[in-house]
Design goal:
The complex is a heterodimer of chains A (about 70) and B (about 375).
Chain A: H1 6-35, H2 40-68
Chain B: H1 2-5, H2 7-21, H3 24-36, H4 40-45, H5 51-59, E1 64-68, E2 71-74, E3 76-81, E4 84-89, E5 103-104, E6 108-112, E7 115-118, H6 127-130, E8 134-135, H7 140-166, H8 175-195, H9 199-221, H10 235-252, H11 255-262, H12 269-315, H13 320-358
Antiparallel strand pairs in B: 1-2, 3-4, 3-8, 5-6, 6-7
Chain lengths: ~70, ~375
Amino acid sequence: MVVGSVAAIGAGLAAIGAGIGIGQIGKGALEGMARQPEATNDLRTNMIVAAALVEAVALFAVVVSLLGNNLGV
Amino acid sequence: MSLKRIKPLLAVAFSVYICFFCNSSFAQETPHHEAASTEAPDHKKEEKFDVASTILEHIRDDHNWHLWGHHSVPLPVILKTDKGFEVFSGAQLVDEHHEPVVYNGNYPYKSFEGKIKIVNEDGTVNEEASKKVLDVSITKNVASLLFTVLLLIIIFVSVANAYKKRGVTSAPKGFQSLIEPIIIFVRDEIAKPYLGDRYTAFMPFLLTIFFFIWINNLLGMVPFFPGGANVSGNIAFTLTLALFTFIITTVNGKKHYWQHIFWMPGLPVPMKIFLIPIEVMGVFIKPISLTIRLFANMTAGHILVLSLIALIFILNSLAASALAVPFTVFISMIELLVGFIQAFIFAMLSALYFGMALEEHHEEELVL
């Protein structure tokens, strides 16, 4: 029997979104690095920052799903 | 670099685990498991292991700082009620098994999930009276915060003295050599790119906020006494830091900054009217997103580590630790990286907002 809350599905959807987002960032950064290897350091820093920003959105969803599960953070 | 590539993996692994353990289904499966085992009668009497409450107990604030087993450091509880201030030891709020008990001060107090409330004779919460209690205790988080402050003072006074003694032009020595590259990193990667020539005025704030968050994040990852408090995973803490950024941004806002919020140049009037509420909201959403980003990242990290450890108790077998312990070590390593990245991002976004406030002409369009 499956017992749970809809919030968990929401967290899963958010993870999909974040996955796509971080994938795009990684793709963009890698392409940039391949074209301009001398810019690698700058690209890497910005890539990490952008990835952390995207990840934060997924974590917002996690917080919401925690609240949805009545954990009360 | 290889560690940094693991970050996307972290996002996935973490979401999966959170989905699993914050879901009540797992907790409710445990009794079935126990019933199926041969020693069922014994196990049934055992208290059901409640993952969610155990994890939350570890990440929330408390009036005692847990050491090991039944030992903990009692912290002072300071309460203000209509009968004035009252100070007593946090040890009075718990019995020897760490269960909350009633303490009779000016009112009968009892701790409910870390919050002190006034109880009636029959043990129920008196919500009406509890609202008047102002809790300004030195809790676990506050004590940890003070410890961080002490640590920062020791580190930076010693480094500053080293510069005083040897001068800024000579090569750094000892502990100075560890700190100098990080300070240079903050200057070159955070302050200069976003603030240009005016970075010196903001360096003290950026350095303070960077090191403060970072050390708090690292101390949060230490599982035993001087660490272990979930300070940077406390929304009040992150909100306060974001408020500093908000105030500095607002105070430093130049004409150009306000113009772009209230009357953007080069747009038709209807569009301006449409955009003003959005821009004004943006001013407040920035600090809120700073708050939630740090809070959610650190809380999620703590929950993840605790969930992995809790796996042993959920499955109720020693064999599970073969999976859980290496995974916990792995996630802890990632959390060390996340602790640094979040401190970096907080300082970087602060610098970015200051840069936006200070901007005076159109030369560069700031993206984000």
